[in-house]
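Good morning C.,

I know you're traveling, so I'll keep this short. The sequence:
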Amino acid sequence: MSKQGKQKGRLGQQEIRDCLLETFPELEPDDVKSTIMGDTGADIQLSPKAQKIIPISIEVKRRKSGLKTVYGWMDQATNHSKGPPVVFYRSDRQPWLVVVNLEHYLSLLRGYKTDGVSFGSEKTKP
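The tokens, ready to paste straight into the viewer:
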């Protein structure tokens, strides 16, 4: 990967890290870290505390134009109704993927509950 490509990837990781820290203010900067380019594993490292609040594996990709079709589909979904645009996509013999914009995803993540625990909260359901 070129130096410029690595810088673009690093900036993308930092943007996502910053969005997560803003969405989950109970986390400290050391809880959500952008990894060094070329490291194996998730692109955003989560501390054990952050993993309890945000139990996902994060891979960050930035491309100049490789996903133009997806953006076209999002525009189409935007024009169909007033709700947030959501694209459901599946290739042959592959599982379904769901595409939403970052703000909508973060609001879903913030409100999601699993096993009686809300993301962003360590309280259990009564």
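Safe travels,
E.
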